[in-house]
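Notes to self after the Tuesday call (sharing in case useful).
The group wants a holo model before anyone commits to mutagenesis around the pocket. I volunteered. Ligand is NDP. Logging inputs and output together so the record is complete.
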Amino acid sequence: MSEATELGFDPDSLRDKYRNERDKRLRTEGNEQYVEVKDAFAHYVDDPYVDSPVARDPLFDEVDVVVIGGGFGGLLAGARLREAGIQDIRIIEKGGDFGGTWYWNRYPGAQCDIESYIYLPLLEELGYVPKEKYSHAPEILAHSRAIGEKFDLYDNACFQTEVTAMRWDDAAARWIVSTNRGDEMRARYVCMSNGPLNRPKLPGIPGIESFKGHAFHTSRWDYDYTGGSSDGGLDRIGDKRIGVIGTGATAVQCVPHLAKGAKSLHVFQRTPSSIDVRGNRPTDQEWADSLEPGWQRNRMQNFNILVTGGHQDEDLVADGWTDIIRNLSGIAAARSDVELTPEEMANRVELADFQKMNQIRTRVDDLIEDDATAEALKPYYRQFCKRPCFHDDYLPAFNQDNVTLVDTNGQGVERITEKGVVVDGVEYELDCIIYATGFEVGTAYTRRAGYEVHGRDQTLTEKWKDGMRTLHGFQTNGFPNCFFMGVTQGGFTANFPHMLNEQSLHIAYMIEQGMKSNARCLEASLESEDAWVKTIEDSAVFNMQFLQECTPGYYNNEGQPGGGNSLLGSQYGAGPEAFFQIIRNWREEGTMAGVSLN
Ligand code: NDP
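Result:
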């Protein structure tokens, strides 16, 4: 029997199809295809959620720790610093409250598709069990506020405040933190938790500035225009022609609500997302009551091990994420067969990936009535080339008479005019364009942070011009007493707050050591930093070949995985659990290896 007959599909033709679909989308401009939200586009990042700016005098005082960012990272850092006995903390946050991603992303249908019981941080500390398996945005925002209350992080916080620069004063061994409120505050330590997807981006579509209708980015949803709330009910657009550009995880969640509310909805697609079953359900109170202390940590770890291909006797979360890995059954099979070469193993994993993606494509056929629309909605790439999505209402929305999918055959929107959007020479007249075009990922760290960091001898932009250089992702030589929380050079996991939690424990430990020994400077050595960068380079999780073969997106630096801050190309290769063990061992050793305390 031929391989194709045995499998029920032909791997060679799928491989060709994937390659063709990728090639169509490759653009020499990479990240340069996007427009930065500044100057004429700056209003796209105005905060629609505060009524008026809070007035306060500039601050010229000193605190022990400034934490930049009041999302989960900053909140966790604050909580763990408090637990370590550090009182003098100030969180600086651009938004009007805590919440970060969940402060900004209030679009209709916003929901987290990582299970709430492992995603929402500090549940046991707060004695809270979320209401549903997958929390909606308002609950997550409320939980962020509850963390702020619980750990007294509101006390000294500066909201509606944007850091504009950080300067290291070597003589005083203090950071001077400047803000757009005229502050020049001093800090012994700074923890930067700017967020991995904090800076919205717009597509560099010719004519984007010429549109005369209404327009906004999904992370600054204009409810004055649409009516409704995060729960939907968009009751002001019944007479409006709405266009959505982008079909990533955000569009997947807001499109069903727009479809319900709008007179007409056009969804402009460059690459379809892979969309599996959601299956949300309310929390079973009996189960919640039965949880034993330590349950959240165990559950987070159980998920993390499973989604990175490890073994656990029980799958506690048992959802689409763990299913993806279970379905990559080739991995398990290959592992038990010692005769297989690495190439043969890779081949089995690839076949399992084809099978899983075939299921995803079959689901599209099952749910979409029109054949041409169904074909256009099928993703042709490997599962982890783009972020997998889970939703039960997105695909059926395209069966509605008022909803049209405008597939751009991988090319993106051709042009924007005064009146609307042009694809393939056809102009679609619209009243409103909603940009579901995501966030900057591969651009320079300081550009995404929105401020420069002036270290002892150079700026962070200069130091990292060819990519990040850190010890364990936390510190970089030449920038004493400064810590980074984020997604690179650490243990990448689909459950991002899990990593933030481990990072916050580590940073709190380091600052505690610095405070206890009354050190002026706590700084990673150049040698330890070089060694860690080499470890990362030698062990990148997703190898270059995989990333190069992927359709472009922010996971592979828009198809240029070698050429910048490739998200998946810069992670510790042995996986998050191994990384967490490394930093735990480092702390237990108690010698601050590779870090000087002077
Ligand atoms: P993404 O970056 O994932 O998606 C941006 C979309 O815009 C893509 O479909 C992209 O197409 C499209 N696009 C870009 N330029 C053009 C163009 N010129 N013409 C047409 N289309 C264009 O952003 P999202 O906001 O959707 O999601 C960002 C991340 O946030 C997710 O990956 C996820 O990590 C997180 N998130 C998580 C959620 C959850 O937990 N459920 C929900 C929402 C977001 P192409 O693919 O071709 O580049």
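Two things stood out.
The mean pLDDT is 93.
Residues 342-367 form the longest helix (26 residues).
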